[in-house]
Structure formats: structure tokens, C-alpha cells
Amino acid sequence: SRLADLEAALSLAPGKTVLVPYTAEVYSTLSTVFKLWSQPRGHYRYVARFQVQQSTLLVADRRFCPLLSSKLRILPAPASLAVRGSPDQSCEQVCAARGLGCDAGALPFLNSCSALSAAFGCLRGCSVELEKDLPGVLGGDGRGGGLCEITHKKPVCEGRGGDTRRLCACGGTSRAAAMAEEEPKLGRWRHDVRRRSRGEAARGTEESVREAVERLTKSRKDVREA
Hints:
Blueprint: H1 2-12, E1 17-22, H2 27-34, E2 47-52, E3 55-61, E4 81-84, H3 91-96, E5 101-102, H4 113-120, E6 126-129, E7 136-138, E8 148-151, E9 164-171, H5 175-181, E10 190-192, H6 198-202, H7 206-218
Parallel strand pairs: 1-3, 6-8
Antiparallel strand pairs: 1-10, 2-3, 4-9, 5-9, 7-8, 7-9
């Protein structure tokens, strides 16, 4: 498997930097193999840096990391619409009411506080939960009314519950939806053939991260498949 290839490459090349573009669908496997946090956190613009077997692992979200090259990014389908639902409606119901289908592959792009704020206002802020009726906003006049909620898990079309108003992606099948239906696969591993200096490793600025990602994506050395 490619994860096994990556593990082998890290053990054989101490001091190297390896870029791992990932999607939410495969993060749990990635975190288990390399003993990372169970959910993406501690990142800078959706790229996180870890030390694994004396090597540096740059883990970047293909949907949200703006520092990745266009070839590695997954972008939302232009035809997908962001539609606000009513309380206790699933995205399947919300989209069906418009004569459309729920685009499961585009839902992750709406799973952000910025997307919810643009749609609902989020008067009580935005938090992270684990329910299936997310992303969305809590309705009603109760204590939680106006609180937007996102999830660490992959959003699903069928989730619904209580006073939650979901933000749904409606439309045809997108590139991201087609990818989600297939067996999730990690992108190609790109190597940085140069050792990073201590000064570069210590810098956490956007410039150093961007330079590292650009070097990695331009490299043509891939891990050999087993």
C-alpha cells in the first residue's frame, strides 16, 4: 500500500521532508499509522508538520490548504449550490425540494465556520461537534439558538435532527463526489531531496511553509510502489 511505501521511505531517508496531501476520508487511517491526532488540529492554513522517524511530515488538506499546487487541490464543483435547510431536514430532503440531489462530495467544502457564517450569521459563534446533522446552525430561541456547528467527521447527506438547520450542497455529481465514492487513496508522495536547516525548521511563517510545499510538489522523485 502507499502508506506502507511512505513508512518505508521515512525509515530509509532520515532528515528528509515528505508532503502528504490527504482528504477527510483517509485522515483516520493516516493518523493511526503515524500516531497523529485523531482529528486534524494544530495546523497552519490546513498544513501541519510532524516529526516521524527523524523525518519531517507535512500533512496538507487537499480541499482547504491554499499552499498546495493546483494539481494537488480538490476544488468544489461550480454547479453545486449551497442551500439552507429548515429545522430537522436532511440534505437529501433539502435538495430534493429543489429537484436536485445532495452532492456528498461537495459537503466538506461547507463544513467550515466561514461558510456557515456567510449563510446563517452565526450569532452565537461557531463550535465543533460530532453529530451527523452538520454542518448547520441551531435554531429556536433556546440557549443554543444561533450557534453554528461543524464536524471533524465527513459530513453526510442523510443527517438530520431537532432544531438544526443544515447547510447543504445540492447539484450534480462533482469531481469530489466521484472521488468520495471510490476507495479513498492518498495522493503521491513528494520528496524534498534537501535536508532542512534548523533555522528553516524553526520558522513557522507562511513563507517558509509555502516554500517547502512548492519544493515538494515540484520534485519528481516518488516513492516506489511495493
